[in-house]
């Protein structure tokens, strides 16, 4: 039973390490993104999980799909439809593939989190998005369950104790 608990804890730690490792490898704070909505349909659908890499603003080009932060902090996945250099900074015009018009606001280089490289898993992100507000509660619950399982007496231990007691009783009978 304790081995099971160790496995659960190792899996939790591995997932946390994977996220941090992806951030380092992808050179972005947002290596995985979940598409919300249908503005990028049919290229990306609601719930698709995307792999994002950091990219220098000068390397980004018209046609690239980027993820950027709006002024309120929300992340947006849209395609670059125009690029210009203004006052020493790159400025992008973006548009969702399913939108009839470009976005009304410019995207400055410091808003860009990265370039979308691939769709990893279609539609599964809907489940993750639903659980996201509870991620810390779920993590705490998993740790509590792991600790309880570690402290729970296993049937194997009880059987071992019973066998030792029986063996001790046999020895007592033999040596009486």
Give a short summary of the structure.
By secondary structure, this protein is of the alpha+beta class. It has helices at residues 2-26, 125-131, 135-151, 155-174; strands spanning 32-34, 49-53, 65-69, 75-86, 89-95, 107-108, 112-121. It contains four helices and seven strands.
Structure characterization notes:
The chain is of the alpha+beta class. It has a domain at 29-126: Umud Fragment, subunit A. It is 39% helix and 25% strand. It has helices at residues 2-26, 125-131, 135-151, 155-174, and strands at residues 32-34, 49-53, 65-69, 75-86, 89-95, 107-108, 112-121. Strands 1-2-7-3-4-5-6 form a seven-stranded antiparallel sheet. Helix 1 (2-26) packs antiparallel against helix 3 (135-151). It is rod-shaped and about 100 Å long.
By CATH, the architecture of the domain at 29-126 is named Ribbon
The main sheet orders its strands as 1-2-7-3-4-5-6
Biggest β-sheet: count, sense, barrel? 7 strands, antiparallel
Task: Give me the CATH fold name of the domain at 29-126.
Answer: Umud Fragment, subunit A
CA radius of gyration: 27 Å
N-to-C CA distance:
38 Å
Q: If you average the pLDDT, what whole number results?
A: 88
**Which stretches of 5+ consecutive residues score pLDDT under 50?**
none
| Gross morphology | rod-shaped
CATH homologous superfamily caption of the domain at 29-126: Umud Fragment, subunit A
DSSP E strands, number: 7
- Provide the β-strand percentage band: 25-35%
Helix content: 25-40%
Order of SSEs: HEEEEEEEHHH
Which class of the domain at 29-126 in CATH terms?
A: Mainly Beta
**Count of helical regions:** 4
Alpha-beta classification = alpha+beta
């Amino acid at each position: 039973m304790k081995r099971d608990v160790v496995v659960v804890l190792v899996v939790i730690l591995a997932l946390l390490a994977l996220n941090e490792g992806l951030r380092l490898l992808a050179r972005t704070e947002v290596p995985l993104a979940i598409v919300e909505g249908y503005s990028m349909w049919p290229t990306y659908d609601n719930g698709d999980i995307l792999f994002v890499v950091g990219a220098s603003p000068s390397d980004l080009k018209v046609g690239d799909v980027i993820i950027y932060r709006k002024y309120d902090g929300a992340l947006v996945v849209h395609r670059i439809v125009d690029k210009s250099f203004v006052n020493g900074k790159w400025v992008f015009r973006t548009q969702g593939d399913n939108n009839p018009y470009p976005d009304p606001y410019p995207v400055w280089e410091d808003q860009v989190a990265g370039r979308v490289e691939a769709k990893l898993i279609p539609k599964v992100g809907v489940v993750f998005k639903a659980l996201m507000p509870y991620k810390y509660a779920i993590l705490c619950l998993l740790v509590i369950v792991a600790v309880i399982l570690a402290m729970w007496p296993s049937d194997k231990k009880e059987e071992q104790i019973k066998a030792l007691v029986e063996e001790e009783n046999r020895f007592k009978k033999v040596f009486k």
